[in-house]
Structure of Alkyl hydroperoxide reductase subunit F:
Amino acid sequence: PFDVLVVGGGPAGAASAIYAARKGIRTGVLAERFGGQVADTMAIENFISVAATDGPKLVRDLEQHVKEYDVDVNTGVRATHLEPAEQPGGYSTVTLDNGAQLKSKAIILSTGARWREMNVPGEHEYRGKGVAYCPHCDGPLFKGKKVAVIGGGNSGIEAAIDLANIVDHVTVLEFSDVLRADEVLIRKARSLKNIEIIMQAQTTEVVGDGQRVTGLRYTDRQSGDSHDIELAGIFVQIGLVPNTEWLKGAVELSQHGEIIVDERGQTSALGVFGAGDATTVPYKQIIIAMGAGATASLGAFDYLIRSSDN
Ligand code: FAD
């Protein structure tokens, strides 16, 4: 059994594990894939104090840092069920996809999130080569170029406003005939000369030259006509889905499926904490996930010293 079991091995999980292990308590990590979303990332230029790195390198650095400590790391396994402790000092149980069960006095949930994809030809091929999901991260890579934002919800319109400051021109493609973003954002976007919004546009293909994105193809859903736009980047903003389906009923989730945490990372369940993109913490970024991991780990440690008599 563990004192702290961290479910998820992204930046939040790695930070949680290091903070817990440094307290000299029995710490475990279980992760389907160590590194999480960072493993899918190319350039990282906003991890403060490291001017430039890339995903695979940051994953190796995270792994090495965790290995400095006595942490029991299990990868290639997926948690499928959580049974929270019934009283303070009791054990919570995590069930894995291989049937094994792990017990721990405190649990830190850091299972992250995944970007909803368009599922069109070229999207995977050009991921990181013009297809992007995070404007805060990759916006500056498209300075002075033309880009599209897919999705007219709050994140899409926010992304368009943000990108309009950096890039030459932004085309927003919205599938339906209404923009679901807040009125104040829509007004702001419409006031910017280098943003064009196209409604009822279904993106059908990401077009590239084999190396990088050169454009996209969409169908006008009203006329049925197909159109091509030349551009260098496509920001897909059709939703970020937390990896929390397996937690329904075990901890309280927001209407978007995010784990509800307080300022110490405590969830609705006894001894269960949460950190990173899987939670209600605003703004999903590496540095924020790491900070949240540290918070949740210190929160868990506080819980442990208050709830056990040994
Ligand atoms: P994740 O990184 O999503 O990690 C989740 C972990 O949980 C993984 O180990 C996963 O395998 C595991 N897991 C999930 N479900 C289960 C389960 N049921 N059982 C066991 N394990 C499970 N942020 C920046 O700050 N700068 C950038 O430049 C940047 N670029 C990005 C580029 C891309 C393409 C993407 C997708 C994201 C980018 N981000 C960037 C965002 C950043 O990667 C995330 O905010 C960060 O990784 C969140 O960390 P996390 O630990 O909360 O979750």
